[in-house]
Amino acid sequence: MSHKLYKNLIGGHSVASHTGKTFLNMNPANSDDIVGEFQSSAAKDIDDAVNAAEQAWKSWRLTPAPKRAEILYRTGELLTQRKEQYARDMTREMGKVLSETRGDVQEAIDTAYYMAGEGRRLFGQTTPSELKSKFAMSVRMPVGVVGMIAPWNFPMAIPSWKLFPALVCGNTCVIKPAEDTPLSTYNLVECLIEAGLPAGVVNVVTGFGPDAGAPIVSHPGVRAVSFTGSSEVGRIVGQTAAANFKPCSLEMGGKNAMIVLDDANLDLAVEGALWGAFGTTGQRCTATSRIIVHQKIAAEFTKKLVARADALKVGDGLDEHTQMGPQVNQQQIETSIRYTEIAQKEGAHLLTGGSVLEDGVYDKGHFFAPTVFGAVKPKMRIAQEEVFGPVVSLIEVDSFEESLEVANGIQYGLSTALYSRDVNKAFQAMRDLEAGITYINAPTIGAEVHLPFGGVKQTGNGHREGGTGALDFYTTWKSLYIDYSDKLQRAQIDTGE
Ligand code: UN1
C-alpha cells in the first residue's frame, strides 16, 4: 500500500525540508505497514517556522482571548467527530490499544474545552496602591513564540496540553512532534486550522531531536520552551534554555510507587497494579513501576498479580481483544531487555515475562511480555531507574513507615499511589509522599486535564501542565499602575496623603 508524504506546516504552507531528507513512520505492531513519510528537518526549517510564528504573533496577540477560545471550542467539536479515525491512526503509529488511543484523543478534547473556558477568565489581579488616586493591577500577557517538543507516548494529548493553553493565552507556536508519532500532531493541527486558526499561529516541523529539536531550544526568537521526554534529553534542553535565560518547562521521568498495605482491598489493588504497570505497555511517565507491598499480604498479592500478567492478551492494538500493544520501537525493546538482565544480575526474581515475543503473530512487531520481578530491594537499579516498558518490581516492606521511606527513596517524584482502607494513613501518605501526584485506592496513572500535572525532584523543574498551572507558564505577568492624581506621587517616599 502506498503511503502519504507529509510536509512541514510553516506559515500556513506545506513545505519540504531544506535538507531534502525524509523518514518513515512505521507501525510498531507490523513492520509491513508504513504510516507515513515525514520531513527530516534541521535548523533552517526551524528558522523559517520561528519567523512565521513571529509574524503571526503580531495579530494573534491582539485577537481577543474569547475569540481565540472559540477556535478551541470548534477544535474540540471536530476532534469529537473524528475521534475514532484519529484513535486508529494513533494505534497504527504508536501501538497502544484502541481503547487507550480513544482516551488519548478524549484527553485532547477535554483540554480543548477546558482551555477554551479560560478565554473568558485568564484572571488578573487588582491590588490597592500605597498612593492616593492611583490604581494598581496585574494582567497576564502572552509570552510570544513558544517552542514545543513532544513525546511519542501520548501523541495527541500531550501536544494538546502544550498547544491549547499556549494558544488561548495568545502565543504562537513551533511544535516538533516525536519522530515515532508525528501523524497525531498533524491530525490535531488539522482540526485547529479547520476551526479557524490563522496561518502561522501553529507551525509543525518534524525531525529528530539533535537536528530539529535543538535549534528550537536555542533559537533567539523562541521565548519559552515546553519539553516532555527523557531526563537525559531534558537536562540538555534545560541547560540550553537556561544559557539563553529562557523559561523552560520540563516534564520528564518517573519511577512511580504503588504502596499496598495489609488492610487493602487486595483484588482492587491487583486490578490497579495491572492497569498502572501494563497500561500503555508501561510507557507512561506515570506508569506504576514499583509496587511496595506489605509482607503480610505479599505472597497472595504476588500470586494474583503474576496470574493476571500472564493472562494479558498481547498483540496488535487495532484488535479490540488486545489488552497490551507493542512497544513503540526497537530501542524501547532493547531497554526492556537490558533492564531485565540488570535486574536478574542484581538478584531480583523474574516471576513472569522478561522476554521478547517474536513468533507467529509477533514476528513483525516490537512486543515484550508483561514482566514482573519479585525480591527487589529498594536500591537495586531496577527499583531506581525508569524502564519505560512493561516491567514492574515488587518490593516487600514490614510497615507503613517503611513503605513511605522506600517510596521516597528515589530521584524522581511524579506519581504515587496508596491502597489502604485506613483514612489516617491515606492522609498521611498524601502529606508525606514526595510526588506531584498522589492517588488513594487508584493506580499511579490517569491524571485529569484540569488538575496540575508534573512532579518534584528530578521529574521536572517545577512547572505544571494542565490546570491553571499551564496558564502560569504560557503567560507573563505585567503590572499596571494608573495615576489619576494629576501630580507626581512617589512610591516608598510620599505618604499617600
Ligand atoms: C505521560 O505519561 O507523559 O496520567 C503522561 C496519565 C496520563 C498522562 C500521562 N493522563 O497517566
UniProtKB/TrEMBL annotation:
- UniProt KW Coiled coil keyword: no
PROSITE patterns, per the entry: ALDEHYDE_DEHYDR_CYS, ALDEHYDE_DEHYDR_GLU
Active site residues per record:
E251
| Highest taxon in the source lineage | Bacteria
* KW Ligase (keyword) present: no
The family line of this record is:
Belongs to the aldehyde dehydrogenase family.
Protein name as annotated:
Aldehyde dehydrogenase (NAD+)
Gene Ontology MF term list: aldehyde dehydrogenase (NAD+) activity
Report the residue ranges that make up the Aldehyde dehydrogenase domain in this protein.
18-479
What are the UniProt keywords, alphabetically? Oxidoreductase
This enzyme's EC code(s): 1.2.1.3
Q: InterPro entries per the record? A: Ald_DH/histidinol_DH, Ald_DH_C, Ald_DH_CS_CYS, Ald_DH_CS_GLU, Ald_DH_N, Aldehyde_DH_dom
Recorded hits in PANTHER family, A to Z, give: ALDEHYDE DEHYDROGENASE-RELATED
Organism the protein comes from: Silvibacterium bohemicum
**Which Pfam families does the UniProt record give?**
Aldedh (PF00171)
